[in-house]
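hey all, quick one before standup. I had two proteins in the batch that finished overnight and I want to keep them in one place so we stop losing track of which output belongs to which input. First protein below, input sequence then structure tokens straight from the run.
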Amino acid sequence: MGVSVVGVSEGAAGSSVERFMISIVVTHRARHIGSSDTSRSAHRPGALSSFRPIRRSPIFSRLTGMLARTIRSIWSEPSAPDARGPGVRDAVLVALVTVIALIETVLRDGLVWPIPSLLATLVSAFLLPWRRVHPLMTTAAAVGFSSPLHVIAVIQGVDWEGLGTAVVFLLWPYSLGRWASGREAVGGAGAFAMIIVITAFDQPIGDTIGGVVVVSLAVAIGAGVRYRAISGRQQVDSIRSRERAELARELHDSVAHHVSTIAVQAHVGRTFVQTDPAATAEALAVISDQASQCLEEMRVIVSALREGDAAELAPQYGIRDIEALADTNMPGP
């Protein structure tokens, strides 16, 4: 009885140990599986990204959409329609900049690289007359001529500032905002970004930020002048359209009166053609006069509705022109 009890006890103890060991193995495998799933989910792209809630935010979506529309609008912006070529004022400006640059080169003490500084200023000045019709090309030429000087100054550690007259260089970013298309403005901005990055190596960060602000301000002023001119032209065109429409309505009333008179006189002539030839002849004369006046006022209407200059008027063909119209050398109707 004691042996059986011991055997049972040993069997119970063995089963307890086996259950304990099995529980340890199961727990260890569960932890391993959980840790591997966690590691795989951690390495899954975007699974634990803290940026996902921001991307799903309506404010973020609205801002990105607004930025995309702004970029597309700038990129598709056409050139200013009122750009004109070189003129007398451009020649005066070039002469003035040249004289001032020469005087500054001769009289300024301690000027670093006087001849290259003078050449850079003169090249920029001589390109100014074409800044309206070719804003990107002239800007790229001016920046391309002065950029090597900045690179050499950075490499040699020379504090090169150029001439003070080179302030005329600000007309290039102004021209990009005032005259250039969207694509040209982006290209010009890239050219200015290049020269700003080059000069940032040998000057304080405050000067670099100040240069960015000045260039951006010049572009903004040019864009403001540009859209003010566009708004002014649109307002003038709107006023002219209203005036033309009002004149056309008035002339329409007058033409309607002439047509009514023609209809009445035609009815009179048809009524008295057998009994009163004199009345019929008078009615036909009135019809002829009213028809001529009606045709003239119709021409005035056409001229008033044209966008540009007045319509070109020419005499109408008559009976005497039949023979000429039959000639093959004459243009057909």
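OK second protein, same deal, sequence then tokens:
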Amino acid sequence: MSTESRSCAVGERSVEMMNMNGHVGPHELFSGVQSIEAGDGIVALADDGLRWSGIPGARAALSLGFGEHWQEVSVPVNDGSDEEQLLDDFVHGSPKLSPIAAEKLVERMIASQVTVHGVANPSGTGLAGELQSLLAPTEFGADITDPHEPSRIMRLIQTFRRELVYEIPDRALERRAQADKRDKKAPLPTRPASDRDMYKFYPMGHGHLIISPEPEAVVAEAEALGQRAKHIGSITTHRVLTIVSRGMNQRDTILEYEL
């Protein structure tokens, strides 16, 4: 194990870490693409919270489902639970995995000589969106065969979120012409949120992703720190991302995303 020390900025802190077995330094680990290899495991830390990018969509979906004053509505914390929580707390106070927690895990893995080839964080997008960004500069793909279950807030959002239906031009023009005759504004057609788009834009229960040829060791180190972690899939040689859905509409269906 190399003893070369590097400075790695994570969140609002900077920590000293060491290079591992001649691989890239910690800064490159958190950008996540330089040393991943086919066959590497993908470990995801569980995160029940909403990332900042998902909050506007959550507000819109819950407003549709529960009305203008949705923030004041209480719902069970989990299915079958007697304990309730305000929807506003689900959205703005839902637990989020701190970047510092992921930093501590990486420090621990380095100290234990667990090889890590990359770290990614679906903070500004969903699980699929982050993996697409991670894999785009590489020659690899990924199969996510055993993802985390979506958190309660994810299932509530999918229940009420609506997506615009993109129509072929002729149908769109015809619908608008009919509306004009009635002197009414044509309503935008919508449909329930698909599992595919939920994984594209929401974390669906996933926090930081750790790419390693030793996924079981990564899970063990995470659990030793009291973090929930799971080996969710692997890096592959075929240029496509697949996710076995745990969503509400297409559960156990294989969702495909281009890279």
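Flagging for whoever picks this up: The mean pLDDT is 76. The two ends are 34 Å apart (CA to CA).
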